[in-house]
Structures are given as C-alpha cells and as structure tokens.
Design brief:
This protein is mainly β. Helix content is 15%, strand content 42%. The longest helix is centred in the N-terminal third of the chain and has 11 residues.
Length: 142
C-alpha cells in the first residue's frame, strides 16, 4: 500500500472519542497511523493491507445531513463485522489479554468452504470502544 493510498474499499467508522479510538487501535491492536486531519476529527489507520478511517461523531449535525442516516445509538455498527486478516493471531491475542479486552468470540479454528475448496482459519472477535465488531483471522495451512 502506498504511503497515503487506501484500499478500494475502506470502511469509515464514526467514533465517539477519536483520541481514545486511535489509542485502542494503535496501542492494543497494532494499527499504524497512515494520516490524519485533526481539524476534521479524522484519521486513516492501517494494519498490514487492512485499512480503516475513523471519524469523530459531530455533535452538531444539521438535520438532513446526507452522511447521517439515523441517530447513532450504541453499539455502533450493528449488523456488520469487519474481518481483518493477520499473519499471526497469537501476538494480538496476547495484547488483548494484557489489556483486558473482552472477547466476543475466543480463539477458534474453523474450516470455511470457498467454492470447491476449503480454507482453515484461526479467528477471534472483539468489540472496539464504540461497539464495532472486529474479527481477526489468520489463514492456516491445511
């Protein structure tokens, strides 16, 4: 990934406290800051080839704002989980335990059918500080 270029599909997550979210994503999950616009309450972060945009929720949203469909009620991101591939799940798992991050799904090994073949993954799932579901997945050799 180039220095400031994001993947073709990059989710943008509305967050209640951008500094707290950045701290969580960087210090606990190991994301790196790609760039930010503090004046807009915005940051782009990356982990390997995965990227996210984080944006501070504007408390002064105008009625009819095209970016806001409904009021943002916790937990945010209901109905979606973000799968993030990692090379090795174990260091992340240790960081989660060290930082007392609750696991929604403890580490498990699962086989998924992908058309005519299968892939085996080791995965776990957590919620970020705003409630977004993050599923970290490591592809294993069969």
């Amino acid at each position: 990934m180039s220095q400031t270029r994001l993947p073709a599909l990059t989710p943008e997550l509305q967050v209640n406290d951008l500094p707290a979210s950045l701290k969580f994503y960087q210090q606990v999950l190991g994301f790196s800051l790609l760039y930010q616009r503090p004046e807009d309450g915005f940051a782009a972060i990356v982990l390997g080839e995965a990227a996210l945009m984080l944006e501070q929720i504007d408390q002064h949203v105008r009625p009819g704002d095209p970016w806001m469909v409904l009021p943002l009620d916790r937990p945010l991101g209901r109905g979606i989980n973000l799968q993030i591939d990692v090379a090795d799940l174990q260091p992340l798992y240790q960081a989660l335990l060290t930082n007392d991050v609750p696991l929604r799904l403890p580490p498990e090994t699962v086989d998924y059918r992908t058309g005519d073949s299968w892939v085996r993954v080791r995965q776990l799932m957590i919620q970020d500080p705003d409630g977004y579901l993050l599923r970290f997945s490591q592809v294993l050799d069969r």
